Task: structure prediction
Amino acid sequence: MIAVITGDIINSQHADTEVWITRLKNLLENWGSSPLAWEIYRGDEFQFKCSIDEVFWRFLAIKSLIRSQENLDVRIAIGIGEENFSSEKITESNGTAYVNSGRLLNDLKSDGHTVSIKTSSESVDRDLNILLKWSSKDFDSWTVATAEIIHEMIMNQDITQEDLAKKFAISQSSVSQRLKRANYELIVETNQYFRKKISEL
Result:
């Protein structure tokens, strides 16, 4: 089983495309090469695949990266399933993971939510989607400053609050307050729960 994330940038027409697309490409290149593992297409849509263990953390890395740019957000559809056909281009690959993710993104565009998951299990989908709806109340309201801190924590889990304070030229207590406001410890717990539920499929 693999995880496929299909997403699109919200409000992309009101932002400097070169800035967000360069940052998104740099992020995705950490996880694989294009167009085999990821691709950006139709201007503001993208798709990439990863292991099911990593998918929640990858989703949050993308979310925090995009939210750290003023006025931008991202819609993300997570599909878990098989890869029956692997092409040289991810957008031409096929299997239930791709179908689940692609169809789900269309549903998200009409229902107003910013993240959802589809697996082979209705009960797992129900549990995880309730969790995602609740947690998105937080994620969707991150300020630029909060998103920047969360992104650094996700991409470098060994980073200390002192390092973050130096990087952002703020006090360590400010770093601590931002992490508390973002419920970072709860995010880590949510990731562990997510991995456990998906491993049961």
Remarks:
- The longest helix spans residues 122-139.
